[in-house]
Target: protein-serine/threonine phosphatase
Amino acid sequence: MLGGALMNLLSLCWSNTTSENSNSSGGGAGSYSSSSNGAFGRDGLLWYHDVGKYGGGEFSMAVVQANRVLEDQSRIESGRFGTFVGVYDGHGGPDAARYVCDNLFRHLQAISATEENGVVTADMIQRAFSETERGFTDLVSDKWNSQPHLATVGTCCLVGVISQQTLFVASLGDSRVVLGKKVGSTGEIAAIPLSEEHNANIAAVRQELKALHPNDPQIVVLKHGVWRVKGIIQSDYKMHSFYTATGNQDELKVDLLYTYKISRSIGDVYLKHQQFNREPINAKFRLPEPIDMPILSATPSILTHPLHPNDSFLIFASDGLWEHLSNEKAVDIVKSHPHSGSAKRLIKAALQEAAKKREMRYSDLRKIDKKVRRHFHDDITVIVLFLNHDLISKGVVQDPPLSIRSALEH
Model:
């Protein structure tokens, strides 16, 4: 079933991975302000929190690592302001996703606290994104001489805020939130996407980029069947040690391909400000022509959705999930099982699909080291919010406030 190279991959030596995992100071646990919501569990590279309670119902969350260092970050906050969900899918490194996870909610809290009634609005969310982008750009500037690579990292952002029976969804990049909504009298649940994606493979995104950059014929380029912003593509060849079935050590050359497809992000300041598109950043990131206006935007698309009693649950996930599962399949998995373990169940379903595409078994995929795993699937983060409309309509406040961050100890 498998080719020789893949068979060798499945015989990887695990001594290094085991020692790395056992040395993780927190065992992959998140941080909590509410002990009633339990703790994270762990299954290899999969971390999960099967079920917990927030102000509007129950939640489930999980993350699986594929990169050498996890580039996804996420958090849930629930208190007097309402409920906040953030999923941040980093690229080029984890730094931007970590920064946004640390700061975006903090900015939103500070902005909403200045308003008389404290009710969240779309304008407040927009301002919080702007403050976060400004802060990360300042960080890049401050560390330009010591850590110039920070100019080349960025993150997609997917934020959901529930405030006074209204859901706000703000997005940059290609993470996605899907609503499971009851339709008709049969109990059927439909899959309704509630976020706008900014991926150059979408015709409307290419048209937007061309309209914003009318004098740049290379703003989007088709290479090898994939549309890329500015045609940016970097290939890094890395040697990975593994053991064959006979116990002989060998090496495998893996082409780790990084393609730039998103048109909006926080970070990636080398594509937004000319002063960061120069040495000492790596030559592969430097554009041949000067940047006279930002190539990428940090302005989120914001959708406002009044919550309806037929709205059953929300699936927030980084694009690693949606590469392998359709909206309908994901909703069907959630609706067909108990709330507990929903996020973990979705990730396992995606990994099973990723394994099938390579003619592998899921059990084989689980044995592959995180540094090689990225060749099979991306980091994946999933948060499922189940909506209890009695609690939402009554404006029940989570007490004590809930604060959970899903991340590996670094």
Summary: The longest strand covers residues 233-243. The chain has one domain: 4-406.
